[in-house]
Amino acid sequence: MSLEARSAHTSTTDAAQVLRIGNCSGFYGDRLTAMREMLEGGPLDVLTGDYLAELTMLILGRDTMKDPSLGYARTFVRQAEDCLGLALERGVRIVANAGGLNPAGLADRLREVARGLGLDPAIAHVEGDDLRPLGLWDGALTANAYLGGLGIAAALRAGADVVVTGRVTDASLVVGPAVAHHGWTPEQYDELAGAVVAGHVLECGTQATGGNFSGFLSLPDRDRPLGFPLAEIAADGSSVITKHDGTGGAVTVDTVTAQLVYEIQSTRYLGPDVTTHLDSVRLSQQGPDRVAITGVRGDAPPPQLKVCVNELGGFRNSVELVLTGLDVDAKAAWVRDQLTAALAARPPQETTWSELVLPATDADTEQGASTLLRCTVKDADPAPVGKPFTAAAVELALASYPGFTLTSPPSPPTPYGVYRARYVDRSQVEHTVVHADGTREIVVDPPVATAGYEPDIGIRPSPYPATADVLTRRLPLGTFVHARSGDKGGDANLGLWVAHDGSEHRDARVEWLSKLITPRRIRELVPEAVGLEVDCYLLPNLGGVNVVIHGLLGDGVAASTRFDPQAKGLGEWVRSRHVSIEDGLL
Prior knowledge:
Shape: globular
Strand content: 25-35%
Number of helices: 14
Structural class: alpha+beta
Helix content: 10-25%
């Protein structure tokens, strides 16, 4: 039975025109009850779940080292045990990338679960992303190509009730069902690009309904769990982002923008099925908790596929010291010298001390008079960052600065991974669907671009005229600018846009922000970026600028010793920095 026919009784509008796709997971560890909440909360045709990230692949890789039968997101199995019957009863297809490194193993486990529940769903899986057997990268713990949505579409067209995948792009979880439902061809680039944008908005769950939103103070219903988002995708690729009635949070142009600018690079979003023009995206508020996405343009995808490669980088450990009261800088200098001397016989390959922030003067609480100093060590061998390091720190307890204390007892060293983005020709990847009856189908690659795109499309300089001398005030950038930030391997992504707060000055504010945010200004606002490559891309339709700070996070989240290794708080820090704002914009 076709996806259109199976979903007809669940959609509030003509199923041939609109496909209603929900999300119930933005990461491995998201709210377990979300699958049931989405299934019971209102009509759906398809329910997706995103469980994978670069760090997750490393975690799953370490799982397989202990037990080769693992390698998938086990929380998804728990959700399926609770909700599979309900999904089948309501005619809702489930599509999830929870297969991780072992989609076949997850499919088998789901069949066991279904038999235990007295159910017989058609379960398919998508594989071919795991490139470790090719031996292209020595020492790779994981090496997974980012597949597109055409394999998912093939599984759904063949009647699958549940489709689990390995490493597909996050947006592919939405692209696949949209292709199956609307019958798009691989060369309907604008439609595919529209589905990619909708998928990008849904992929991180409640981040589209107010989670991690810098405008949270105006967010309604914060006393209730934030609702997960869903998209109504039309045959032309346009969509409306919404959520179930009665759930917490909101869907506004700003909450959707926050997710759109999250973890992107340039204005060209390169995917396995289509290259999406992010500077073509237009958003409009259609009503309470309804935001329309229109105007999205796309063209042929690139000839190569991106690969997430994780390697074991070595071992790490850390201690965090509390320094209180007077002479904090001298206390820090003394304990640094003492610990360095104690480790001199076999120093770790890398030792990093956090920046010292002096506490408030004449604080009226002990906590207010204290600050933290963290020492992190890394080595290819666990021995130097194990007992020699932790014992040296503990032995200073009665022999160092006054008030010496640690925030927690020292722990054994832990392994860390190094993320690398690599690229392979499509001919090296065999995108494969294993249907519910066990038959295998090789997914044919779509037509690809024969020439590369211009990488600096949308990059500075600003198209706006120079600013005349005007009166300004020193105020936080966040006075009327929202931000969202995150990590892409070792790069930090920072999206900035002007709030939709009803101000008559919004267009002028957008022009001001577009002139303000340059690589030089970013290095002033983020001193850590001095010496690093910084790209700034203008997104005028969204009223914003996307910033990529290359190398800020070192070798990626698992290896970074930075205070905020995933750059999650970077946007809020930048919003707090003071800049000169023209008086007429306030």
